[in-house]
Amino acid sequence: MAQPAQQLNSSFYGLGIAPKILEVLDRMKFTVPTPIQHKAIPIAAEGKDIIGIAQTGTGKTLAFAIPIIQRLSQKKGRCLVLVPTRELAVQVDETFQKLAPLFGMRSTVLIGGASMHLQIQALRKSPRILIATPGRLVDHISQRTILLADVNILVLDEADRMLDMGFLPQIEQVLKYIPKDRQTMLFSATIPAEIIKIGTAHMKLPINIEVAPSGTTVERVIQELFIVKKDSKRQLLAKLLAQYHGSVLLFSRTKIGAAKITRFLRGLGYKAAEIHSNRTLGQRREALEGFKIGRYRILVATDIAARGIDVSGIELVINYDLPEDSENYVHRIGRTARAGCEGRAISFATPDQRDDIKNIERIIRTALPVSSHPEMPEERFITTQGMPEGYRGRNERYGKYHHRNRPFGSRFQRPKR
Fold this sequence. Notes:
By secondary structure, this protein is α/β, with parallel strands linked by helices. It has 2 domains: 5-210, P-loop containing nucleotide triphosphate hydrolases (Rossmann fold); 221-371, P-loop containing nucleotide triphosphate hydrolases (Rossmann fold). It is 33% helix and 18% strand. The chain contains 15 helices and 16 strands. The strands form 3 sheets. A 7-stranded parallel β-sheet has the order 3-4-2-5-6-1-7, with helices on both faces. A 7-stranded parallel β-sheet has the order 10-11-9-12-13-8-14, sandwiched between helices. Helix 14 links the parallel strand 12 and strand 13 (343-349).
């Protein structure tokens, strides 16, 4: 039966999706497509190249999974989805697993830390969908346990990370084994112009789908900034955690830092787990699953968890350390306020990190509101000259001398020396 015109615009009907898939979406209670899904699905289903930019938590995985399943059901070939982290690979596979069996398709995850032997066995079953991290995929290519000559759909999820200098050499190596006559799709919340330039060199007339400008943060997240000395961070953290009662995702810049913070939190009596590249795949899975089901209230992570990790109901994201790459701020705080829910993101900055905050504010195109805790000393940013922000020194606007923000000039007596 034909759907009413109004319903067509606000549902998955009318996007050219196969009835089998629509039935699954109904069972999953997915009734209204997100903006990126509404725009990307019809274009991707036509086989066109796409650069998709949308905030985190807006359903980008489903935006490419639906058209991929549909296209593979109609033609020969395989799809390769490349992602930056093991956790994201598993999560992307979970989305495909909801749709692929409908059409008799298999998917396989190829990630480091997992059994190479089991992955080889899975590849012998000719999966139509390959989800991989670049390093492990290169291992399979080197050992000739995989052929990519029939890959006709390529997806780079978290494309800005996949095309930066860390992953780019591996990506370029993989591209040598994939036919140039393929559909290529890039998706992320942040794709700088230089990354788009690299990406489009490997694409055919890509269509830009920009639901929100690159760097746009999730809509319902409340952001706060605390300026705090490095040796006072733990004290402030303890006070803030006492104010909130929900689940907390805390980001550390380093693996060693994450381990130390986890021990500190456990010493305070909190159930906390850590996730970073020094942990085994099994330990990382246990930590993430434990966090999802509430076994752990706090998950301490490096930027390995900044992208694509979908855990519902995270009340608070704490940037205990600011990210090394300012664009990761957008991905980090996108772990809360997902799927229309509210959330909060609190960042700690030391007095000498004024420039780091300015870089973040330039990306998100808004100023971070500075908060202070009544039981903590109030700090200010130090300028490049080593003086508190707002301090005016000699030879500045008000003349030769300045003392405690009071101008001296022709109308004021000079201070005694």
